[in-house]
Amino acid sequence: MPDASGGRLESSGAFRIDRAAALAKLARYQLADPWHCARAWLRAAVLLQSKHIALWSEEKTTRIWFAGVSFPEAVVRDPCFRSFEEEAGTGDAARHLAVGLLGCQRLQPDRLVLSSGRLAWSCDEAGIERVAERRPGEGEYSTELIVEWTLAENAARFEKEVRLSSALLATRLRINGETIGHRPEDRQSRPRRVLGRRVTVCSEAANAEGEIDLCRDGVLVEVHRHKPLEGLAVAVNDDAFTLDLGCSSVVKDERFRDTLALVEREAKRVPAGDRVEGPVLRVLTLLQAVVVGAFGISCGWVLADSGGWLSFLGVCVLLFTAVIALVGIAGATRRLRGRFGWKFRFLDY
User: Fold this and answer.
1) 40 phi and psi, to 5 degrees?
2) 233 bridge partner residues
3) 253 vs 17, 222, 240, 256, CA distance in Å?
4) How far is residue 198's CA from residue 213's CA, in Å, rounded to a whole number?
5) By the 8 A CB rule, do 340 and 206 touch?
6) What gap in Å lies between CA 135 and CA 292, rounded to an integer?
7) Which of 29, 62, 283, 336 sits 20 to 30 Å CA-CA off 149?
8) How many C-beta neighbours within 10 Å does residue 94 have?
9) Is 163 in contact with 175 (CB distance < 8 Å)?
């Protein structure tokens, strides 16, 4: 029978989604590097407004604890699938949780456990999932992730990824009992808050060549190369960054370009003499030392042949310039080889 719009119902029914195939496809198009699951979980903890985050690394086990927060039971019962639904109830936190779980499963751990609220979800190496109720009083107001690795070095690799990814994390982080964060005396690397962003610019890393750590929610997203910032180690956190579908890079939109311009302005606060040279600048510094030395020696030689008191002055200029040139060339050569023990500001640009 036709309906009010003139259409006719031909047939009706239902279809089932192959859950295993759907999860495999989700995992395939998520994190570019499965080790970035550490970043996804840190971001989930921040978005869930955890009071603090703790990580313990044992021989073949990694434990991550989010204090004072838990996920809805619907998410814990099926975290890899339900977390992508809009009605999950925790915004982007559940999505980043799922992204991290899918990425971690690509590393093939022996066992993966999510305990949150009253429930505990687990997945073994065969992909078999189980859900059980936690014992009363067993961290009902917290979330814990446990990864049991096949290899002992995987726990150390995961811990290293957490340390590298948490430079601008505002939430308190403890790793094996040690509080991670900027030391009070390390003033140069402490973040400045500028127009809603947190920015650090420093020149202490000897191999820095204009690399910018782009962070969102205090967690590293990607490392971006920007030639005008060569010689500086830069990190910027902008919670308004838009991430790509894989949560592995920042979308290069207007917000990104505005942030890049802001970072360039902040970089001008660092004196040019304090910048760590890239390879091109090191070569130019060496050539400058050679040219200055050759010019000075030539002038001294001409004066030495003039006779009279100019001859004495020429010899002094010749000796002084020769010493300066040798020291400058030696210092520039050391810097060209990546050794920065000597610093000659009169030879810097």
Assistant:
1) -60, -40
2) 202, 211
3) 35, 15, 11, 5
4) 12
5) yes
6) 77
7) 29
8) 24
9) yes
CB 66 within 8 A of CB 43: no
Nearest residue to 201 (alpha-carbon basis) of 281, 273, 268: 268
Pairing of strands 197-202, 233-237: antiparallel
H or E element at residue 56: strand 52-57
CA–CA dist 57, 65 (Å, integer)? 12
Instruction: Please give the Cα distance from 116 to 57 (Å, whole number).
Output: 20
Check if the beta carbon of residue 304 is closer than 8 Å to that of residue 318. yes
Residues 31-43: b if buried by 16+ CB within 10 A, e if exposed: beebbbbbbbbbb
The tally of CA atoms less than 13 A away on the side-chain side of residue 69 is 19
Which residue in 173, 183, 174 sits closest to 204, CA to CA? 183
Q: Which two tokens stand for residue 42?
A: 């840190």
Output the DSSP codes for 95-139: HHHHHHHHHHHTT--SEEEEEETTEEEEEETT--EEEEEPPTTSS
Residue 103 has pLDDT above 80, yes or no: yes
Worst-scoring range by mean pLDDT, 63-67, 162-166, 298-302? 298-302
pLDDT tens digits along 320-336: 777 776 776 666 666 55
pLDDT tens-place string over residues 111-129: 999 999 889 999 998 888 9
pTM summary value: 0.68
For residue 226, how many other CB atoms are within 10 A of its CB?
Answer: 16
